[in-house]
Known about the structure:
Layout: H1 2-30, E1 42-44, E2 54-56, H2 58-70, H3 72-75, H4 88-96, H5 110-120, E3 122-125, E4 131-134, H6 141-145, H7 147-158, E5 169-170
Parallel strand pairs: 2-5
Antiparallel strand pairs: 1-2, 3-4
Helix pairs in contact: 2-7, 4-7
The chain binds heme C.
Amino acid sequence: MNKILKKLPLFLTAAFVLITISNKAYTDHHEFEFTPEKPYYVIEDPNAEGSEKQAINKAAYYGYRIFHQNCHVCHGKAARGSSFAPNLVEAFNYAKEGKKTGNGQKYDTVYDWFLDTTVNGYKREMAGGTVNVMPGHGEVVDVMKNIDGIYGYIAAMADGKLTTKDRPGKGWKLK
Ligand code: HEC
């Protein structure tokens, strides 16, 4: 009995910490607003199945879907690249480190890089005269409407917070 009582303060502290953390996640997800610095959230949903256990904010969820429809064909599943176009999760982290990106430019922020290349696209002269083209998507309404969501979706993967390559869960629907 005494032993258990001795451990009580430890137990209470642990419980308090847990409650504080989960309250924070709750507040984060109900008061979330996109900024380039905090472009997504990911929360674990233990009640969901498979890939949906990782639930994300609404805009990033639609970002996933719009990516699938417009970018997947070249950039591969979950932006991990194909023989034709680069892995955008890696490219994101290069841009974040301030390295030169695919079009040979340096940008002040990752968000600037992402907007410029996605909206305007770019061409690249290759040794054999081949030109690899990232088509500009400035006229593609679905992409422009969801550009912050696509950014959030890729950022979540680049930060290692969203690890599934399949459809994530709907974080905003969680109670
Ligand atoms: C027709 C194929 C194609 C489609 C569709 C496409 N891309 Fe690209 N994208 C490319 C290619 C090819 C490159 C690399 C060009 C190069 O550097 O040689 C690229 C480069 C990029 C880069 C820059 C990578 C870097 O290293 O700096 C970003 C960001 C990007 N694409 C985002 C997108 C997004 C977001 C979409 C969907 C809205 C999309 N792309 C759709 C072919 C495509």
